[in-house]
Amino acid sequence: MAATKRRRLPEVDKENLPGNVCSRNKHCHAGDEKVKTVEEIYQKKSQLEHILLRPDSYVGSIERQTQEHWVLDASKRMSKRSLEYVPALYKIFDEILVNAADNLIRDPTQNIIRVEVKRKEGSLSVWNNGAGLPIQLHREHKCYVPELVFGHLLTSDNYDDSEKKVVGGRNGYGAKLTNIFSTKFVLETADSRSGKKYKQVWEKNMTVCHKPSITQNKSEDFTQGRKEVSLSF
């Protein structure tokens, strides 16, 4: 029987096989110019960074959508229409509006909520009468109450689950989301109990917090939040 001649297989560069995993980590292939470090692969984000990085988890989709909704038409009647809008933009407006509506539960004398939209300026403001926020320092968190409510995440006066909940905000985000998705956010409130008026400005998605301006005031209580709209999600 004739001897079988074996063919010699070509040598294989095992280090550069497609899909070969680099011994340093599973996110690179040998031969890649740049190898990710452990710090680049496994990351930890602050709450604010996470909200900006994953807005859909907090305010809904940032994609333009078309849906049917009931709207108030020019004749002051409700009609169903097809609307094109961005759910996230709607949500950050809704958050500050709900904040104003919730104040009615705290102060039944409130009878005005005023909304002003300035398209050319790209700004939106919500004003309500009724009891203003207490203008006093919070001893535990070392800042004024209005700053705590509008500029610190996970703060709320609705955490007592033994109380019956009839308000919209419960989870400590609320109006802070409006602040975060604004290039500029201005808060004003008057507190007749202390006879003071409070004004504070945040900029760059709530990353820059200016010191509050506190002045003497004799006018009635009110609270107003004004945001300059940022569409750059």
What is this structure's SSE topology?
Layout: H1 38-41, H2 47-53, H3 56-59, E1 65-72, E2 78-85, H4 87-106, E3 113-118, E4 123-128, E5 137-138, E6 143-144, H5 145-151, H6 175-180, E7 182-191, E8 196-203, E9 208-209, E10 213-216, E11 222-229
Which tags fit this structure?
HATPase_dom; Heat Shock Protein 90; 6 helices; EC 5.6.2.2; DNA-binding; two-stranded antiparallel ribbon
Protein model, in words:
The protein has helices spanning 38-41, 47-53, 56-59, 87-106, 145-151, 175-180; strands at 65-72, 78-85, 113-118, 123-128, 137-138, 143-144, 182-191, 196-203, 208-209, 213-216, 222-229. It folds into 2 domains: 16-42, no CATH class; 87-229, Heat Shock Protein 90 (2-Layer Sandwich), CATH 3.30.565.10. The chain is built from 6 helices and 11 strands. Strands 3, 4, 7, 8, 9, 10 and 11 form a 7-stranded antiparallel sheet that branches. A two-stranded antiparallel ribbon has the order 1-2. The protein is an alpha+beta fold and 233 residues long. The radius of gyration is 27 Å and the shape is flat. Residues 16-24 have low confidence and may be disordered.
Domain count: the total is 2
The averaged pLDDT comes out at 82
CATH topology of the largest domain: Heat Shock Protein 90
- Intertermini distance: 77 Å
Oligomer: single chain
| The CATH class of the largest domain | Alpha Beta
Overall number of strands? 11
General shape: flat
**N-to-C series of helices and strands:** HHHEEHEEEEHHEEEEE
Query: How many individual helices?
Result: 6
Structure class: alpha+beta
The profile of the biggest β sheet is: 7 strands, antiparallel
Give the fraction of residues assigned to helices. Answer: 10-25%
SS strand fraction: 25-35%
Low-confidence stretches: 16-24
Please give the CATH architecture of the largest domain.
Answer: 2-Layer Sandwich
Query: At the fourth CATH level, what is the homologous superfamily of the largest domain?
Result: Histidine kinase-like ATPase, C-terminal domain
**Rg, nearest Å:** 27 Å
